[in-house]
Amino acid sequence: MTGTAEPLLRIEGLRTVFRTHGGEIAAVDGVDLSVPRGRTLGIVGESGCGKSVLSLSVMRLVAHPGRVAAGRVLLEGRDLLQLSAAEMRDVRGSQVAMIFQEPMTSLNPVHTVGFQITEAMRAHDPRASRAELRDRAIEALKRVRIPAPERRFEEYPHLLSGGMRQRVMIAMALACRPKLLIADEPTTALDVTVQAQILDLLRDLQQETGMSIILITHDLGVVAEMADEVAVMYAGRVVERAAAGAVFDDPMHPYTLGLLGSVPRLDEERETLLAIEGSVPPPFALPRGCRFHPRCPFAVEDCKAEPPPLRAIAPGHEAACLRAPVERLAA
Ligand SMILES: Nc1ncnc2c1ncn2[C@@H]1O[C@H](COP(=O)(O)OP(=O)(O)OP(=O)(O)O)[C@@H](O)[C@H]1O
Predict the structure, then answer these.
(1) 19 CA from centroid of ligand 1 (Å)
(2) Whose CA is nearest to atom 2 of ligand 1?
(3) One MF term from GO for this chain (predicted)?
């Protein structure tokens, strides 16, 4: 990753497992990542590759029968996995906040928007008066560019459009000025125009506040627009990691090439592939060796032996592939 300054968040050797009838499975299996201050890390990969479990692990919100089995999640050097439940509650919202794909499931339909924002604020500042909280909540609605915030404050969530609901969620998430915002598919449920508005808003808010963002998405267009750094996940592991420009211009892992819908050719033009065949194997049916090898057009016998570690292929650009960079393989 670029930059030498200490990152805001460093994830080391994270492993999150679920107990199932067939035994314990690892949905996140040895992930190392870092998020620089004020920057956006995009985490991409197909459905089921472990993106959401990774973010829930950072928030310590993995529900039973799941648990974080190993690793460290260092926020400014402090390991969140070692905090007491009370300390972690304090970190959530005040230092790290999260927004999800479908805001309606996170907003309570029986309470007004204002009530929900002020309750979230009260949890972190129990001594604030009602009037103070109201003012702050309206301020928070203004920050996310919600028109007529005083009126919206009194309304119930179902009266708002999907885009407005996501703005309310962002307002709640940012109310306590977190240093890190985790956005899990924040625009997936929205139509394209609204999607662009929400991404613009997140970018503006990042400029204003200097917060870091982890943006989780299966949409490479969103990542291209937003991310400074990109981590590509496959079957619970990071398979490629670099500055966003490098991942898009010079992808080195065959899976990334597949996601980008392109294969390298001698004349350096890209030829479109319809899709990578097959799907992400579930954690209980992982192939030996490289987890991508059954779907990989470049796989050789050695790929079936050991899982390849992430290694630097170019400065600041890592890939977990014996054959990387695969551009060379086209020659
Ligand atoms: N409660 C659970 N019990 C067992 N396995 C689980 C549980 N929750 C998630 N998993 C497994 O963990 C793996 C990763 O899931 P995760 O939701 O993180 O993927 P994702 O990349 O975020 O996909 P999506 O975009 O569909 O949410 C999946 O194979 C899933 O089956």
Answers:
(1) 13
(2) 18
(3) ATP binding
